[in-house]
Please model this.
Amino acid sequence: MAEDRVHVTIDGAQTEVPKGTILWEAAKDIGVDIPIFCYHSKLGPVGVCRMCMVQVEGMPKLTTACTTTVTDGMVVHTRSPEVEKAQRGVLEFLLINHPLDCPICDRGGECPLQDQTFQYGPGISRFVERKRHFVKPVRLGPTIDLDRERCILCWRCVRFTSEVAEDNKLILVDRGSESFIGTFEAEPYVSNFSGNVIELCPVGALTSHKQRFTFRPWELQQHPSICPHCPMGCNINIDVRDAQEVIRFRSRTNEAVDDGWLCDRGRFGYDFIGSPDRLKTPLIREDGTLRPASFSAAYRLIAERLQRVAAEAGPHSIAGIASPRLSNEDLFVFRRFLRDSVGSESIDYWPRPEYSIDSGDSAALQTLDSALTSIDRIDSAALIVLIAADPSEKEPVMELRIRSALNKRSAQLVDIGIHDVPLSGKASAVLRFAPDQIDGVLRGLFLAAAREAGSEEFAGARELLDGDGPVVLLYDDSFPDIPQERRRDALLSLAYMVDNLRERRQVGVIPLLTTSNEMAARDFGVMAPNDSGSVWGEPLVDRLLSGDYRAALFWGANPVGTVAGLTEAVEALDFVAVSELRLSETAGLADVVLPASCFAEKVGTVTNTCRRVQVFSEAVPAPGMARPDWQMLVELSQRWDNPLSYASPEAILADISGSVPGYAGRLPTSYRRVGPLGVAVKGGGVEAAE
Model:
């Protein structure tokens, strides 16, 4: 509506913006640069650095652009003599005690203070006294170091911990000229999200302990990618030196997924890429020892042994277990290789939920699947419900999105679970139950008899569920704290809950999965079928223990060591082949081990927890002879009568787009068309992200 928009003139350029827009944001939208240190769009206005002073006609004094809301007819000057004088003065004050150590500062080359001093600063300093110095660096915690003398007290880091992460780990200590950033009572800064303050810091005051003094920004090349550590699919940039060494991961904003944040697991978990333990050549077991071999020898041995097992015991005696950390292309080809080339339907992924669903319960799975919603729907939810789920553990950045919805958009939270989680303190209603009671609790919320007999906490949760507005339910479908024999009932009760809520409210569902590409593993049928042939049968690793199989392929999966008795079961198999990055426990038992390239060494796509398909690209070369998993499977399939013919990962993407239910007709057939922010399919919408 017209009354919801206002006209403003900035440096002679007229623009129309929504009512309530901050002046700094309005200027940014039309390409007018206003220097800033303290303001950040995710933190909101505070006005402490005074760098964004502008002149507004009709106002007696200069005002800060980050705290001023535009009004209709406002005329703004950002480069008047008065503004330029104020900006020079602010920079001169900031540089009085700021050390001029740019040649060694980690931030040098990508420092806003450095850039703005050149563009807006006085060019000279009148200060001749000795600068103040502090002991440096201060080790705030396991990940973050602080150089106090560089700090300009913009408060960004403090506000992040208080407003976004809400762990209040960083505080402003003392007052006036004695103020400095520290932790409460000098306790270590330990958080899921500590690395974000490095990017928020506009100077080199907060640095990564891991990366300190290890690179210069201009040495690095930036490669867009997707974080591989959880199913949320946060967007990252991989910074690479000399086209071969991964130096750091940084956040890359995708409003539909990560809201611009990155957890510490994603930010600092890259050492495996360049690890000296990476496999560089195929290995074949000879005289009980794995020895280097050629790919042709490895392929020949795998084909001979699998074909012998298939001839003696049938192809279904060959089990294939893949890791959901593999790309969409890898998982799709893995299933095609087992099904079309080998002839086996004994396929599963690991880790996965340790229970099965009967084919008669498929309607419940369809209910949950049809209600799947996108992550950004949390922003518009009136009510968010956690069901036996801890986002901080499974998908950490999801916790930040929920906190933002509660704090900035007045959403309410209901926490239904066995024990407290970090978000429990934000809940309007908390409902606790014993591990074997989840079925009765979820169904009881909608049964009249249970409503009358429920506790006060039960009544509070029921009242919120009976309200108005969109609801988003988040649940952990592995239900780790619930007895295994009750997990199926928990999933069915959740579907019952969704059906009942749908009668009066818009309902969206987000499953908190375990591994990065678990949704694609399910969508592509890389999951053991039940006795009726439908998916979600008993985990295949459990069936390996029964001795029903003669051979197994473990493609990136490493269940040995986590499943009791599996070591002996794998050792008893006639033949075992493994594709891995490093010599894992499972690979150590194999007859053949193939060296795989990781996500940073190949091109492909992944599907996040809400079915947003996103592209990652090659950032560094694979070590030695390592190859993409899909390529090794295609090459291996040439030794069967029904070989696979894919020549590129994009050809596999086109096949996925044309043959996988839910993806067909919705997923583009080229990486360029998928775009840098991905495309949502089946459940999360069908439009490509802008």
